[in-house]
Each structure stands twice: as C-alpha cells, then as structure tokens.
Amino acid sequence: MIYLPHSRYTKVIAITIISIVLNSAPTNGQRHESLMGFMIGLRANAVKGDVVYQREHGKFALESGLELDEGDFIRSGANAYAELLLDPGNYLRIGSETECQIFSEQPDKMRLKLNRGSISFEILSSDWDGSLFSGKWEAHELIRVITPNAEVFINQPGIFRINTTSEGRTEVIARDGEAVINGRRVKKKRRAVAIGDAISISEFDSKIEDAFDVWGRERADRSVVANRSLKKAPWAKSRKAGEETEVELSGETGQYKKMSVVSARLGVVNFVETGVEMSRTANDWQQLTEKSELETGDTLRTSKYSHVELLVLPDMYLRLDEESEILFEQLSNDAISLKLLRGAAILDVPRFNRKEAPQITLAGPSTSVVVAERGNYRIDATHNGGEIMVRDGKVVHAERLVDACHVIAGKTVADCDNRTKDNFDFWSEHRGEGEYFIGKSRMVTATYLASMRRIRFKDTGFWFQSPGQTDYIFVPFTSTRFRSPYGGHYSTVLAPRPVPVNRFDINRASDRFPGTQIARPRP
C-alpha cells in the first residue's frame, strides 16, 4: 500500500489492474469513492482510420479500450493511426501503413517488433528529471523495439520516432531525450539511420513534421488538456482542505509483485525473458523461470532477443546476451566455475570479499581467469576462440595478475577500449552495474535501481476513464510535477501534496551527492 499522512477525513481508494473500486463501508471518519482506471496492461486509447489487430488466426477492428495481449499484431491502413497506453503517462503511437507485433507487454520486459512503417513514443517527463534530486524518477523501465535490421532501446523521458522498411533500413529520431540503436547513442535532436551494419548519425530540424508527427503532437496536447479538465470532476471538486488519500495497490504482476529479498542460494534467477532455456541432461531443454533452481552441470541458453540475469552470489550478477550459452561447471559454496560456450556474458561484481567468497572462475573457449577483486568482466565466445575483457577489477590469468582495462585472448593480454560496444552493454548498464553512493552510504546499483523502479511505478499515477468516455486520461497520484515532453503539466492529481524545498550549497553538491559509481570505467 501507499500510505499518505492521515487527517480527520481520509479517502480510501483501492486500485487494481483494471479498475479503482469502492472499498468497504465508511467507518472511522473515512470517505470512500469509486473511480474507473488501470495501471498495468497495454490498451488502445484512440484509433483513426482503418486499424486492425490480429490475435492468433482472427482479425478484428481495433477499438478504444481494447486490452492487447502478447503475440498480437497491429496493422494500419493508409492515413490511419492508433494510440496505445503503456505505463501510466507513457504513449505508443502507430503510424499509417505499419505492422507491429507485441513480443512482451510486462512493464519491465517491454518488447515490440516493428516489421514495417512507423511508431513513436511519448515518455512521461517530470521537473525532477536530470536534477540532483531526481532519484526514483530517473529509474525508467526499458522499452526494446526490434526491426528487420536493428534493435532500439528507450529508457528516458522524451519523444522518439522509429521508421523501418522490410528491406533493412531503420531510422531513429530523438526529438527529445536519448535512445540507443545497435550500440550507438542517439542524442536529442539527432537522427540515426541503420543500413546493414552501418549507422550514420546527424542533426535534424525538429520543426519539420509530417502528418503522423502532427497527429502525435495533437494527441499529446489533448491529453494534457483532458487532465486539466478533470478539476471540474466531482471527485476532484469534493476534496477537502487537509484531506489525504490512502491508495491500496492490489492485483500486481511481474516485477512489481516481487519483494526485495536477497537470497542466500547460489544461481538465483533474478530476471528472465521468454526464450531462455536450461538443460540438466543432454538435449532435455526446459523453459527457465524465476522459480528455477540451478545446479552444477546445468546449461543455460538464450534465443534471439532474449536475456537473463542471475544472482551467482548475493550482490554478484551474471548476465547472458541473446543467442548465448553457458555451462555451470561448478556451482557450490566451495567454488564457482562458469564456461561460456557461445555468445556473450557479463559478470558484474560490485562487492567482493576474497576471504569469504568461493573461488570464481570465468572461462571462454580458449582462455580462463579467476576473479580477484570486485569489478566488471565481459566474456565473448567467437569462432576464433573469443576473449575476456577486464573493464574494472582484477583477475588472475596464467598465474599473473591482470587489472583494468585489459582484454585477454588466448595467451595474449592487451589494452582494451572500455566504451560500451553493443546493445548488450547498454542492457547491462540499464540493469545496474557497480555501486550507487547516497551521501556516505552506498548500495549495489542493481538493487537500488530495482527498488526505485518499483517505487516509481507505485508513486506515478494511473489511467483514469471518465464515465461515458472511451479515452483514458493520465492522473498522477500526488505530484503536480509530471509533464508531457511536448509541453504542459498534468496538474490534476488524485491527492496533491506540497513538495518540500531542499536548500544546499551547489558548489558542494558533487561531494554530498556523488550519485552512481559504476564498476565499468567511462571514457
């Protein structure tokens, strides 16, 4: 539950996945109201022209309010558009003559496949974004878009458009915010074009818009105006001075249902996408789940576009890239030995006590090392043997100590380039690497980000539907600082709360608020 300070009168509202429903009969001075809305799920919100969705073998007209499922296709005709609702405050818009498929709808595993045409994203902004006090508002979930020749990552507030053709050309336009395509950052007011393995990035004039851009901007303006119009709604007008709200979240799914519990078991599955399998005996592959328990001798493999994250030890993360395979040669409190058979893996070790930790061996097809210090280590297995990269930390190789930044290939040790090299690196960064410093205390970054993302989801708001209307409107729970990246604040909130002003010496801010210190060095 989200608890806000009680006053004499308290509104109690229960929010489920589908609706905000009336609680029990009023008692102890509480007042109860019923509002329709939802927080989790992917829904159509507005449709213009001929847009259909395909579910298995059936094709149907897309209508406002329809809840979409994993595997659904969406196809639009000429001069037709659609607007879909993602996490509260975030929009996905589909352009004309476009085909898009929903790979995964879970907020922390959002994957979309764009086969042709254009889509755009409007990701909720706030006044805290980019500030020293941004905290949980910076912890956005990752949206992955797969095209015929590229993969695009979005995990920041802003306005983004993706165009693709079936012939293998993908374009990403970042009007506001920053995106990633095939391991390359696309900054604000930049356009990236991927053709084959080549990517070109250039500036573009943000004033230039086509009909799809105009429709998206008009929809964004309408959303802000619709939110402001709710000030006249009975539930908003009936608020009393000093009245606070207690919001109960129930029916949660995905990562938001999990508690922050650190397991003492080895090889805990912390994050897994569909398409990851494990084998305990030869040729007997089973779907890996978060309940799976790994043992010595097990093998994991990932399919295309699938990733997995394991807690090898508490606060020690093993991440496996798509189309990769790894063997747990040993997994015990005495020793851990991991051998990458194909693909790529990253071992992030933000904390390491060599007196208490078991010996940890990392191996590829042609070389192996023993972890000697906290750090960040990447293994790549290729047809010519592969390499192990020490981005931060130290390892023992051939009875020699190798520190950062070096790459080990066979018997050769050379200097390395510590910059991110592909989408797998960016995904690992998104999951969290190294430690996060808050004042004099510090946390494992992955733990911190998981907590902040859970809190952010619960504290942001919900999609509200006015009686008799088909459109949903974003309503923040308590903060008036949320805004559309197109402009305009969502000023009607469920229970507005004053935001305290913190005053400090800006010249000393970097010492007091050092932020994230990650294991991987930056260029």
Which terms would index this structure?
523 residues; mainly beta; Jelly Rolls; 17-stranded mixed β-sheet; 16-stranded mixed β-sheet; 5 helices; globular; disordered N terminus; disordered C terminus
The gist of it:
The chain has 523 residues and is mainly beta. Helices cover 10% and strands 42% of the residues.
Notes on the structure:
The structure is a single chain. By secondary structure, the protein is mainly beta. Among the domains are: 43-214, Jelly Rolls; 263-314 and 316-349 and 351-432, Jelly Rolls (Sandwich). Helix content is 10%, strand content 42%. It has a 17-stranded mixed β-sheet that branches. A hairpin with a 5-residue loop joins strand 12 and strand 13 (110-123). The longest helix is centred in the middle third of the chain and has 19 residues, at 211-229. It is globular. The chain starts with 9 loop residues before the first strand and ends in a 6-residue tail after the last strand. Mean pLDDT is 85; it is low at 1-27, 250-261 and 500-523.
Fold blueprint:
Layout: E1 10-15, E2 20-21, E3 30-32, E4 37-38, E5 42-48, E6 51-55, E7 58-61, E8 67-68, E9 73-76, E10 81-85, E11 91-94, E12 99-104, E13 110-123, E14 125-126, E15 143-146, E16 151-154, E17 158-165, E18 169-176, E19 179-181, E20 184-186, E21 190-195, E22 198-203, H1 211-229, H2 234-237, E23 244-249, E24 268-272, E25 276-279, E26 285-287, E27 299-302, E28 308-313, E29 316-320, E30 325-331, E31 335-349, E32 359-363, E33 368-371, E34 375-381, E35 387-392, E36 394-397, E37 400-403, E38 406-409, E39 412-415, H3 423-431, E40 435-438, E41 441-444, H4 445-460, E42 461-464, E43 473-476, E44 482-483, H5 509-512, E45 515-517
Parallel strand pairs: 1-3, 1-23, 13-15, 31-32
Antiparallel strand pairs: 1-2, 4-42, 5-8, 5-10, 6-7, 6-9, 9-12, 10-11, 11-13, 12-13, 13-17, 14-44, 15-16, 16-19, 17-18, 18-21, 19-20, 21-22, 24-28, 25-26, 25-27, 27-30, 28-29, 29-31, 30-31, 31-34, 32-33, 33-36, 34-35, 35-38, 36-37, 38-39, 40-41, 40-45, 42-43
